[in-house]
Amino acid sequence: MGASAPAVIIGGGVIGCSLAYHLGRAGWRDTVLLEQHELTEGTTWHTAGFVTSMRGPDGPGWHARLAGYLPALAAMLRAETGLDPGWRPVGGLRLALSHTHVDELRRLARRADELGVPLELRGASATMNLAPRLDLTDVQAAAWLPGEGFVRPKDFVGALVAGARTHGADIRTGVRVTGIDATGGAVRAVHTSDGVIETPVVVNAAGAAAGAVGALAGVGVPVVPVLHQYGVTDVLQPALDPDTTPTCRVPEQQFYLRGANGAVIIGGSRPDPVAAWPAGDAEPLAKARDLAEPDDAAFARLWQLARARMPELAQAKLAKIMHGVEAYTPDGAPLAGPTTLPGLWIAAGGGLHGMALAGGLGRHLAEWITTGSSTWDLTALLPDRFGPSATNRDWLTTRALATLART
Ligand SMILES: Cc1cc2nc3c(=O)[nH]c(=O)nc-3n(C[C@H](O)[C@H](O)[C@H](O)COP(=O)(O)OP(=O)(O)OC[C@H]3O[C@@H](n4cnc5c(N)ncnc54)[C@H](O)[C@@H]3O)c2cc1C
User: Fold this and answer.
1) Ligand 1 center from residue 43 Cα (angstroms)
2) Which of 1, 124, 214, 215 could form a disulfide with 195 if both were Cys (CB 3.0 to 4.6 A apart)?
3) Helix (H, G, I), strand (E, B) or coil at 10
4) Residues having CB within 6 Å of any atom of ligand 1
5) DSSP codes joined into one string, 382-396
6) What CA–CA distance (Å, rounded) separates 15 from 156?
7) Is 264 exposed, middle or buried (0-12, 13-18, 19+ CB in 10 A)?
């Protein structure tokens, strides 16, 4: 293993890989990325891949900015690598079933206007041609966001990694970081299962394990591992073409759908979210491609909603439920920036939107690390925003679950 590097990224999920690509693009060759398993085998491999351009009528501007960068990044990756980066701009529908939520869609439209996000309000009948296989009889209005879509995680990360390597990044898998040397009050080196690498810059992109990695340097990281699940049906007859089927959300039911390989992905947030701190000394993401047992009772609500919205699902079977861990913060916003330890940075806490935000997060941090500032003002994502509470697991968990329950 090379004994020194300008920067070491810990974590080969979508956020770490995006950062490796953007650091390389900014001219930092020889950046090392270390992943304890194979790439993406933490949370990224089982993402549902929805790319949501804004969170809601009161949603933060930074989300629109970061997610809005994905199409340009995908085009850049395609041109540089010749690979399909997996971005599918199929558009997104949000349905309102009540007068209150029609008003919410109107507020969403005003916010979209402020943020420069393309959005068109439509009546139910004008929505039919976009979603001919959905039952829209209870729909009062819809918002059509043509810039939304989904991303195929394997393809997206594959293109990021190919691009990163072209720009000189050194991506190593099967290497676990076991220590961070901060002798003298600043980062000096990382200790790994394969030796020591001297470096002045370490980025903690360890997803749901970011707290454990921060602890190696004595830095509290306000990330809580939480569980999230979605179901996938068998292939429908006729098969649903995911590349021409808009994604669909019903915010008042906390429920969403999209096409995937001829089938449908059915997901949603739940009013009673669950934390996933491992027992004893175990760390989150310690096992590759780890999944929790499906929560059938919680999924039953989504399955019922899906069958009502898409009547042909009455004949369909559920093929699998993906119930996995993701990294959530007390306010639901990622952590992106320097920590209190000079040389240690964080890019984690992507939560429910980490795939959509990863491209922008990588660009933002790479710019900041290499030039000392970033084009985007993202102070809302500063890692130290929770102060000393960052080390209080009970406080973090209570706040994170309360925030997640409201999404
Ligand atoms: C069921 C589910 C559905 C989702 N759906 C969506 C969606 O539709 N849209 C969306 O935008 N987002 C979605 N997400 C969220 C998104 O998938 C995540 O935010 C994103 O994948 C996180 O990427 P990451 O790089 O931060 O973390 P990860 O992919 O977990 O990567 C972190 C990596 O760090 C490695 N690591 C940890 N410790 C060490 C160490 N000591 N040494 C070396 N390596 C280490 C881990 O092995 C892991 O591979 C979903 C999440 C879940 C769970």
Assistant:
1) 3
2) 1
3) strand
4) 10-16, 34-37, 41-44, 46-50, 176-177, 205-209, 213, 228-230, 285, 322, 324, 326-327, 348, 350-356
5) -TTTTGGGGG-HHHH
6) 11
7) buried
End of a domain among 275, 294, 328?
A: 328
Q: Tell me, yes or no, whether 234 and 304 share the same domain.
A: yes
Are residues 233 and 191 part of one domain? no
State the residue range of the domain holding 373.
8-47+153-224+331-397
* Per-chain mean pLDDT for the chain: 96
Q: In this structure, which amino acid lies at residue 193?
A: S
Q: What would the pLDDT profile of 349-373 be if each residue is shown by its tens digit?
A: 999 999 999 999 999 999 999 999 9
Rounded to two decimals, the pTM is 0.98
pLDDT of residue 2: 62
DSSP secondary structure, 233-293, as one string: EPPPSSPB-GGGS-EEEEGGGTEEEEEETBEEEEE---SS--B-PPSTT--TT-STT--PP
Nearest CA to ligand 1 atom 20: 354
Rg (alpha carbons) of the chain, rounded to whole number:
21
Ligand 1 atom 3, closest CA:
47
Give me the CATH number covering residue 307: 3.30.9.10
Residue type, 19: L
**Of residues 338, 345, 303, the one with CA closest to residue 320:** 303
